[in-house]
Amino acid sequence: MAQAGVPYAAVPRGSDGRVHFSDEVHESDADVEDNGLFEHRETMEVADNDTLYYGMSLGTRRRMRKGRVFWATVVCLVVVSVVGIFWLYFDGINWMQRSKKRNVILMVSDGFGPASETMARNFVQQVHGLPVGYQSPLDEILVGSSRTRSSDSLVTDSAAGATALSCRMKSYNGAIGVDPERMPCGTVLEAAKLQRNMATGLVVTSRITHATPGAFSAHVTHRDMEDLIAEYQIGNYSLGPMVDLMFGGGRCHFEAGPHVNSCRTDARDLLSEARANGFRTLDSRSDFDALDANSAQSLPLLGTFAASHMDYEIDRDPKQQPSLAEMTNKALGILSAATKNTNSGFFLMVEGSRIDMAAHTNDPAAHVREIVAYWDAISAVRAYVDAHPDTVLISVSDHETGGFSVAKQLGPEYPEYLWNPFALEPVKHSIEYVSSKLLGQTTDSAKQYEFVRDTVFPKWMGIKDASHEEILAVAQEADSVQLRQLLSTAISDRAQLGWATHGHSAVDVNLYAYGKDAHLLRGSHENTDIGDFIVQALGLNLEQITSLIKNDKVVQDTPAIKQAWMGRRDLDAPEHHPHMH
User: Fold this and answer.
1) CB atoms within 10 A of CB 354
2) Bigger pLDDT: 553 or 565?
3) pTM for the full model?
C-alpha cells in the first residue's frame, strides 16, 4: 500500500513490474492537496494515475513524446532521401539530363590500335626532336580500353563496330543500324534529335555513306547498300531528316546514275531530293570556306567534297579539300550557333575514317599522317570542351586494322631491337596514289621501269637504295593488290614495322574521354558500354525509337556494289580516281 506523501518513484511495483492503480493509494483529497506537487486537483489525478500506471511523471512522458516525434521525423527524412536517391539514379537522372543542356562529341578512329598510337607518338617525337616524355593529344586523356567483338565473330568489322556504339547493341559483321535479326535498331543520333531536339552532325573523311556514319543514320542489312544509306541520310524514311550536318566524301551515291560521277545503281538524283527536303548542298573547297562557322542558317547541310573517299592527308591538296580538323571546327561552330539559345545542345560524330584504309593497305606512311590529322581534330575538340564545360568528348576505335606491330624481323637471324621512324618522313604520297599512277599508264616496260626508278622510289617514297629486283617487280606488276603489297614491303621493311593481315584484328583498342563525366568511362569496357554512356548522359530511350522505325526498309531495291577483299572497291573504284577516266 502506497502512503500519502511518498514520492511517486518510490511507489512499490507489482510482480509484473507495473504500478497497479488502487483507490486506496490516496485516502483523501487532502492527501493530494497536501502533496503540493500540482496546482489543480484534476491535473494531480491525471498525473497520479499516469505515474502509477506508467511509472513516470506526465512531464517526463511529454518530453519522451517530443523525442519520439523528433526521431520519427529523422527516420522519415532518411527514407525520403534514400527513395530520392534511387529515383534520381533509375529515372530522375534521365529527367534531369533532359532538362539541362549537354553536348556529346563521339570521335571514332577507325582501325586505330594501341600500337598505332605508339608508332605515331614515336614518329612525331623523333622527327621533330621533342622530349622523350612527349604525349600526344590522346595520351593525355586515356581512360581505358574497349573490347570490340561483334555478335557473330571475335573479329568485328566497322559496320558491327559502329552499330555497337550507335544502338548500344552487338550485331553481326556488315550490320548497319540493325539487330542480329536484321531489324532496325534506334540510334543515339536519332534519339538525340527526336527526344531532346538536339542538333546532330556527322563529319568523316570516308564516303558519308560508309559503314561508320551509316550506322548512326541508317538501317540496312548490309554495309554495301550505300545507295539506300544515302536515302536514309536525306530523310527518306519514317523519321524524316535526322542529321542536320554532314561533311565528308561520297557524292557519287547521291548523284543520279548511270553517270561517270555516279556510283548509284539507279537513276535517282538524291542531291535534288536533298535540296527539296531543305538541305543546302556543297561540293567544293570554296563552298566550304564560304560557310559562316558562327551561323546556323545553313542547316540542314550536306557537304560532299569528293566523289568517293576524301584524299589521304599525305595526298590532300588543301586548296581542293578541307582537313578533318577544319571540318570538325566548322561543324562545332555551326552546331553551337544552332543551339546557342536553346536548352538542347548537339550530338556530333567525327570519324578519322582513313586511318583504317591505310592500315588495310599496310601503308605506314599514310597511316601515321592520318593519325596525326586525327590528333589535330582531337585538339580542336578539346579546346571546344575547355570553353564549354557542358560537353563531353569520347574517342574510341571500332577495331584495330592490320595486326600492326612496331617491330619487324627481316631475316632468320635474331632480330634487331629497333624501328626507324625516319624512313617514313620523306614519303610524299600514299601507296594508293602511287599505284593509281602506275596502273594502266603505259605499256612501255622500259619507260615504266625508269618511272619507278627515277620518280616513284626516290621522289614519292623517299627510297634512295631500291634494288634492281624491287624496281623491276613494281614496274611489271599489273594487279592493284599485289602492287600495293610490293610498295608496302619496301617502306615497312626500311622502317622495320610489321603487319599480320590486310584485315582487322581482335585486339582491344584504347578508350579516351575528356570533359563532363569522362571519369565514368575509366576501365575496360565492351563497345556497347559507350553507347550506354551516351544514352545515360542524354537521358535517351532507344527502345522508343526502335518501335517507330520497325517497319522501315532495310534492303536496297537495286544491286549493291560489293566490297571485295582488301576493299578493292575502296581502292580501285573509278569514282575514286577521276583522273583515270
Assistant:
1) 31
2) 553
3) 0.82
Separation CA 220–CA 129 (nearest Å): 48
User: What distance in Å separates the CA atoms of residue 252 and residue 71, rounded to the nearest whole number?
Assistant: 73
Q: Work out the mean pLDDT of the chain and round it to a whole number.
A: 87
Q: What are the cell numbers at 138? A: 590522346
Active-site residues, by number, are 158
Among 570, 578, 552, which Cα is nearest to 238's?
552
Task: Specify whether the CB–CB gap between 397 and 107 falls below 8 A.
Answer: no
Q: 142 with 118: CB under 8 angstroms?
A: no
444: left (phi over 0), alpha (psi -120 to 50) or beta: beta
Considering only CA atoms, which of 68, 220, 143, 123 is closest in space to residue 419? Answer: 123
Q: What is the pLDDT of residues 467-512, one digit of tens each?
A: 999 999 999 999 999 999 999 999 999 999 999 999 999 999 999 9
Grid cell locating 484: 600495293
363, 328, 312, 315: which is closest to 119 by C-alpha? 363
DSSP H or E stretch at residue 111: none
Please name which of 443, 434, 290, 287 lies closest in space to residue 366, comparing C-alpha atoms.
434
Would you say residue 81 has pLDDT above 90? no
- The grid cell for 331 is 561543324
Asked if residues 345 and 308 have their Cβ atoms less than 8 Å apart, the reply is no
First to last CA, the chain: 123
C-alpha cell at 342: 536553346
- pLDDT of 4 strictly over 60: no
